Amino acid sequence: MAATPAWPPDSTPRLFVEAPLSAGLILPVDGGQAHYLAGVMRMKPGDPVLLFDDQSGEWLAEARDVRKRDLTLEVVRQMRPREPVPDLWLCAAPIKKGRIDWVAEKACELGVDRLVPVLTRRTIVDRLNLDRLRAHMVEAAEQCGRTALPALSEPVKLAALLADWPADRALFFADESGGVPAAAAMAARRGPAAILIGPEGGFTPEEREAIRACPAAVGITLGPRILRAETAAAAAVAVWMASAGDWAAT
Length: 250
Known about the structure:
Blueprint: E1 14-16, E2 26-30, H1 31-40, E3 48-52, E4 58-64, E5 70-80, E6 88-92, H2 99-110, E7 114-119, H3 130-144, E8 151-152, E9 156-157, H4 158-163, E10 170-174, E11 180-181, H5 182-188, E12 193-197, H6 205-212, E13 217-221, H7 229-243
Parallel strand pairs: 1-3, 6-7, 6-12, 7-8, 7-9, 10-12, 10-13, 11-13
Antiparallel strand pairs: 2-5, 3-4, 4-5
Helix pairs in contact: 2-3, 2-7, 5-7
């Protein structure tokens, strides 16, 4: 006997929606999402769509009333609840457009709970488009299967970040002058954590001194090579996820 095909199929499109989802909800869709579903995916009535709302998990919906510029989705049932998210913040100095977009995208894919843009003395980006960064995180979540979006904080100056730092959250900072190997440092201290990555050119000596003065701070090294800021961010998050985050449990 032939096996019953999986439903919904792996090719089912997946979208984030702002509206709280529940079984039986009728959801009108227009704009870019309607163009994607009707124009690109060429959906027909009855075709499945996976939806998530950052609140209640992932839901199966079916297309109704498909037209060229809009369509309606009917939410059928919940597929899975909102995922538990590892309690990790990525505190990163903004870098050039394109690179900071990449950081936001990979932070979402890797499982970060919160992205905090940190302004340092050598930060060369003085304006940050938070809407664009969030859009990149939404697209990443749609692609990678996340049901929970990372929070995105307003940019904060390094001094203010350190002044208000919670005592129970470890602050692993990539220290160009040397530190504990990242894997060892992160495995030794479990619980709420954050990773602090400086700008291209690194922290100034005064900033490193201020960071080290924070009781929760732990200087880490990411190996013998000099990494770009965005590479350091992804590498440090990956190490934490493998040693103390949800990669360690899978």
